[in-house]
């Protein structure tokens, strides 16, 4: 191969005479015969050259952009490298000076405590670090309002219980933040918005006490929420209430249930209008003989029966719910009904003695005067419409129904049976007393027979 290389040296490029590829090809040529060199090698070289040319053309077509970019970068590389070296040297020379300036700035301003620019910078940096926490705090009022709204929409369901509990937890969290940061304007604004939401929740809960068919569990739950939402209501007059400890919540509960009772009785307005017509016809009569011309009070009888039925059911439910919710262990005198039996005001009801230096008497419990209002509501209605009913059996039926109503409320300490003797007007007071006496006699006789029958039943 050395002899072949010496023969071909004048025809080769001096820079590629010792190329590895050249050496491999010359080694291959030395192994070929003369006939192969003359016949097969030239076409093989031509084919290889053509293949290589096609490959180069395809590569140029695919990667011409990269070739152009590489050529441009390569052309500027000889100037970019020296420039980068100079700039790196300048940066290295400037670092000590920059360090000296930073140390001088820190030394100069670290001793100044009233610099406004530094204070603003510190506040901005602190705000940037706590932006997520502030965002969470700012969202608390909206979350609380949404919880209260959702609970009002789903009132009376299990969802409202969970939502009200969540709202109370959010409010408690806001109160803790207000305790931890009492001077923060942001926390103060958040707490103010939360209080507005809790006022709406209080209104919704009080409205919930006026719902129809209020159950004991729902009443206890609602009063418990009110005690957490508005603790001030639980503290008002708590020292004046005798053994109840319900504060103003007891009065609120009774007022709400009374409003529901009144709205339920107002549903009888169509019957009441018919009874009013009979009242007008009765009052327009010249004498008693004229009163026989009108119907005799059938519409009034229907109205009063339905009225007494609703009154009996609702009054018993109101007082029973009150006693169970507030756990009021009151004696009959504290209940304020003992005076009703004799027709007197409940001034003799026992109450907590007021201090000697207090010129005003403390208010009695809410339940002490509430039955009086209920009884007044019933007696006013009976006094207005009972004279319309002229049929004796109908009147006795109504009085018996009232007697059962009085006995029903009397199971809770509110028997008002003796007041019924005063239902009539001045002209028929004696007749009413006689009718009431007859009804009481029949009722006692029936009760005695029932007691005898009950006593004969053997107890296993």
Tell me what you see in this structure.
With 460 residues, this protein is mainly alpha-helical. The protein contains 20 helices and no strands. It has helices spanning 2-8, 20-31, 34-39, 41-109, 116-129, 131-138, 140-153, 158-180, 185-208, 216-229, 231-235, 249-266, 269-283, 288-291, 298-326, 332-335, 338-341, 366-385, 392-410, 429-456. Helix 12 (249-266) runs antiparallel to helix 15 (298-326). Keywords: Golgi apparatus, Membrane, Protein transport, Transport.
Question: Descriptors for this entry?
Answer:
460 residues; mainly alpha
Short structural summary:
The chain is an all-alpha fold and 460 residues long. The protein is 73% helix and 0% strand.
Outline type: elongated
Share of β-strand residues: under 5%
SS elements, strand count: 0
Biggest sheet details: none
Oligomer: single chain
H/E element sequence: HHHHHHHHHHHHHHHHHHHH
Helical fraction equals over 70%
Termini separation: 133 Å
**Mean pLDDT metric:** 77
The unreliable regions are: 238-244, 289-294, 328-356
> How many helices?
20
> Whole-number radius of gyration?
51 Å
Q: By helix and strand content, what is the structural category?
A: mainly alpha
SSE layout:
Layout: H1 2-8, H2 20-31, H3 34-39, H4 41-109, H5 116-129, H6 131-138, H7 140-153, H8 158-180, H9 185-208, H10 216-229, H11 231-235, H12 249-266, H13 269-283, H14 288-291, H15 298-326, H16 332-335, H17 338-341, H18 366-385, H19 392-410, H20 429-456
């Amino acid at each position: 191969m050395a002899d072949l290389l010496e023969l071909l040296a004048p025809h080769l490029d001096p820079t590629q005479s010792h190329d590895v590829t050249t050496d491999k090809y010359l080694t291959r040529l030395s192994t070929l015969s003369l006939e192969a060199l003359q016949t097969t090698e030239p076409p093989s070289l031509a084919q290889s050259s053509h293949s290589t040319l096609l490959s180069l053309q395809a590569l140029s077509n695919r990667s011409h952009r990269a070739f152009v970019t590489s050529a441009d970068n390569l052309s500027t590389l000889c100037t970019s490298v020296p420039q980068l070296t100079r700039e790196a040297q300048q940066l290295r020379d400037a670092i000590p000076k920059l360090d000296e300036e930073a140390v001088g700035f820190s030394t100069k301003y670290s001793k100044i405590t009233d610099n406004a620019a530094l204070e603003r910078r510190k506040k901005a940096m602190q705000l940037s670090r706590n932006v997520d926490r502030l965002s969470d705090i700012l969202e608390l009022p909206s979350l609380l309002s949404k919880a209260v709204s959702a609970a009002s929409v789903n009132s009376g369901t299990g969802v409202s219980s969970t939502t009200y509990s969540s709202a109370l937890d959010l409010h408690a969290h806001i109160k803790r933040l207000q305790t931890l940061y009492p001077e923060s304007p942001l926390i103060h604004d958040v707490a103010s918005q939360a209080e507005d939401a809790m006022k709406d929740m209080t209104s919704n809960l009080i409205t919930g006490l006026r719902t129809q068919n209020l159950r004991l569990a729902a009443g206890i739950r609602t009063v418990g929420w009110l005690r957490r939402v508005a603790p001030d209501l639980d503290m008002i007059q708590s020292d004046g209430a005798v053994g109840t400890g319900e504060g103003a919540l007891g009065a609120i509960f009774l007022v709400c249930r009374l409003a529901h009772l009144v709205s339920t009785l107002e549903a009888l307005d169509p019957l009441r209008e018919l009874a009013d017509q009979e009242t007008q016809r009765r009052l327009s009569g010249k004498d008693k003989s004229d009163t026989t011309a009108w119907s005799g009070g059938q519409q009034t009888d229907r109205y009063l029966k339905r009225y007494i039925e609703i009154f009996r059911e609702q009054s018993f439910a109101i007082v029973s719910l009150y006693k169970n919710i507030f756990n009021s262990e009151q004696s009959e005198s504290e209940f304020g009904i003992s005076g009703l039996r004799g027709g007197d005001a409940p001034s003799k009801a026992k109450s907590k003695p007021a201090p000697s230096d207090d010129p005003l008497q403390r208010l009695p419990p809410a339940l002490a005067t509430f039955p009086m209002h209920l009884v007044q509501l019933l007696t006013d209605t009976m006094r207005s419409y009972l004279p319309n009913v002229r049929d004796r059996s109908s009147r006795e039926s109504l009085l018996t129904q009232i007697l059962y109503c009085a006995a029903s409320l009397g199971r809770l300490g509110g028997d008002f049976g003796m007041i019924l003797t005063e239902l009539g007007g001045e002209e028929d007071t004696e007749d009413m007393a006689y009718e009431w006496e007859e009804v009481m006699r029949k009722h006692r006789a029936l009760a005695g027979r029932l007691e005898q029958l009950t006593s004969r039943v053997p107890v296993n």
